[in-house]
Give the backbone structure.
Amino acid sequence: MSDNSLSNQSVASAIAKIRSEDTLIQNDGVQELMHIGPPAVSALLTVVGEQQAAQRGQAMYALSEIADPRAQPAFKLGLSDDDERVRSYSAVGLSRIGDADALKALIQTINDAPDPLHLDLTPSVFALGSFGLDAAGELLELLLDEDQDTRLHAQRALEMIVGQRHGFKFGRGYPTPEAELEAQAEWQDNGNYDYAAPAAARIQSVEKLRDWPRKRKQ
């Protein structure tokens, strides 16, 4: 059997797993498709167009991780999906392929699909945290939002931006205790924003934060 035939067979097997009703089996299929990479994109795009929300979410997650530009139309369409996981991974996918509308999409989906064990974190929060200072202006506006969850998610994304400036890596932490202290000091020196603080205190913190991106780019 040719390598191409084996690859097609592997994609078909993994797609069948994604279409399962068992979440664990779906997860196995997602991992296999991510390992296969670009050759799996066409089949994943078919699943994204199907009706079952859970399977669409799994397929969109796999596409966002593969980050193939061919998925761009699906990512853009997915931003208006009824399912929050589909919306969230669509925005992340746009970010990973470097689409010009990625920042807007991530801001739009910042509250979608929070981690059940860490409600302060969403896929778009993580993506915004990797966006760097270019995301700071948009996030500062969310810090003044009336919705507490929006403020919390914006704060976490900004904290990640600060952390990564000092070497923080997801799953690894800071390179040294000193680097973590430096990140904490930078946050405190620039307003020490707290999403749950009284409105007056939050406004004061944001005003101080507004100068931070400009100073950091100098």
